[in-house]
Amino acid sequence: MTVLSPPRPVVIERALRDARAWCAGHTIDDRPALAHAVRVAVTIGDHVAAPPPEVIAAALLHDAPELAPASPDVYQVLTTRYGPEIARIIAALQAEHQALDRPHPPIRVDDQSVLLASTADKIVALTSLLRRARATGNVTGFFARRPVLCALLPHFRAFQHAAQPRVPTSMSAHLDAVLAQLEQVTTGIHTASTR
Predict the structure, then answer these.
(1) Torsional sign, CA 172, 63, 91, 4
(2) Over the stretch 72-130, which tens digit does the pLDDT of each residue have?
(3) Per-residue DSSP letters for 46-63?
(4) Fewer CB near the terminus (10 Å): N or C of the chain?
(5) What's the mean pLDDT in 65-69?
């Protein structure tokens, strides 16, 4: 059983329905976007006993700002359908995603709901990258073509260290293990120096 197994709280049921609609036709990490959203939600449940339904709903909808129709305003839609807390978590996750495109992205670990969703999102995304790299048969070449991603690995490691005392031990260990694998396979790859 996972946090998405029926019977589900109404807010999770509604979020899953909206995630299906908004993710339709989109991909993340070469897979249907819904699969990514579901994995993030399930990863939270794998590490957190009885996570708040609002955090699971936000995890299901965390890519909505990029995937949902632009009009009307997605945050207005999220607030109307789910209330301000879920919209706030999603906005914080979106701000974190956007900050990765700038030099020296900040690391914030003071908001437990955002931190749980953010850590799960990193676990899922980085695990997916490793899977895709291994599927090519040339792991080093896969990451060598992604110098910006390689340059972000120290940021993700710093995030993991900062989050460690604030997330469940198993969740921190999961992210640590994924990062250790990435660090091992990218050793020696020159990274973008624009960070």
Answers:
(1) negative
(2) 788 999 999 999 999 999 999 999 999 999 989 999 999 999 999 999 999 999 999 99
(3) HHSSS--HHHHHHHHTTT
(4) N
(5) 87
Q: Cα–Cα distances in Å, from 111 out to 31, 116, 163?
A: 29, 9, 10
Taking 3-state DSSP, the helix, strand and coil percentages for the chain, each rounded to the nearest 5, stand at: 70, 0, 30
The single-letter DSSP state of residue 74 is H
Secondary structure of residue 190 in the 3-state scheme: coil
Strand partners, 27: 32
**Residue 59 has which token pair?**
């995890």
**Amino acid of residue 75:** Y
pLDDT tens digits for range 132-190: 999 999 999 999 999 999 999 999 999 999 999 999 999 999 999 999 999 999 988 86
| CA-based nearest residue to 68, from 40, 87, 83 | 87
Tokens encoding 15: 């979020």
